[in-house]
């Protein structure tokens, strides 16, 4: 028995023969479901999801995004990969965030009284570098440390891995704990420090936050250096030293 074959039934009696023809139709079935896919924002190499269906006649495939028929077919390609089999592919080239969502395909037949088939749901996630951190500020300033915090930026669908902290335009710290507060230590008293922060995830680095400039507090001086007794007598002592560092 083959799809699409025509079958003839012949009935005979003494008065003669009667015939009837019929064609075997086969309900569509999904033979390949689309898979979850992560795609980098505006990546020219892009990504894709694929659906394959089989039946007789060869089924048509309709894509749905977030439960709504996908009407923009510019990035959809189709081919009859095998007899009575249609493969449909949604290509994501230079993907934007609106391409994210749930996708499934439905296979339909031109024949009457044939049941449609629906694929499993696949989730497409368009990812990008994080937005830049905002609201950077110093919440405590002392002579030898500054505590800063900031507001966590949007991660653009790829969780933030951590932050780089720049002090006087030098990358001093990479904070991998994914927190939004940090104590910058080992600073010098009564000194200006320019501070900024960027976030990073598996896609890359955000742009750098706005800079803040803070001055550490004054502190008691360190001890004099090279203190020594250079001469002494019964009534006087002569001492020398170098200024503190």
The number of distinct helices, counting runs of at least 4 residues, comes to 0
Helicity level = under 10%
Q: Report the mean per-residue pLDDT as an integer.
A: 89
Q: Could you say which structural class the secondary elements and strand pairing correspond to? A: mainly beta
Shape: rod-shaped
User: Beta-strand percentage?
Assistant: over 45%
Q: What is the terminal separation in angstroms?
A: 97 Å
- Low-confidence spans: pLDDT under 50, at least 5 residues? none
Largest sheet: 6 strands, mixed
Estimated radius of gyration? 37 Å
Helix-strand string: EEEEEEEEEEEEEEEEEEEEE
Number of extended strands: 21
Using brief descriptors, characterize the structure shown.
rod-shaped; 0% helix; 245 residues; 21 strands; four-stranded antiparallel beta sheet; single chain
